[in-house]
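Exercise 3.2. Students should predict the tertiary structure of the chain below and write it as structure tokens, then compare their answer with the key that follows.

Predict this chain's 3D structure.
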Amino acid sequence: MSKSKRKRRIFTEEFKKQSVQLYLNGKPKSEIKKEYDLYPSTLNYWIKQHQEIGIVTGLANMGTGVFSSLGSSISDFFGQQSNIYNSKIQQSEEFCMQQLRLKTLKKGGNAVIGVDIDYNEIGGTKEMQMVAMIGTTVHLLNIEDVIDEMVNIEEYNKRFKEYRNLLKKLDELK
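Answer key:
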């Protein structure tokens, strides 16, 4: 008796996503493998692609400078926002996010989840600001869906800002 070889099958990304989602929703691997006639290593590989890879961090330190300190002191005196400090903090945040992205790609991931951001002053004179980020890098099978959702969120945020600006203009007219 010779054992017949099973013909190699090609699975769509959608099928892979659905199989992994069944597992993540609590269905035992053995049932999924049996129901869809999958090799054990195939489903395990798909699940592994979806799992976390590790922790990534980013750190940015930025000096405020004499002029920034002077400008922020004036803003503080009048109880206003310090655009100079806000700009420096935003630059530090972007630098940290770039570090997280780069480290994620180096580890084989395609997304970072559960990001924590901390802000601190370094030294007693408030001349140095620090931004630190930490997150979990993962490899998502449904990255296209996540990107589509991010675009929807960005569009929503854009509309919300436009709406808020209109409300401000209405208040100014009163």
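Discussion points: The mean pLDDT is 80. The chain has three domains: 13-50, 54-141, 143-174.
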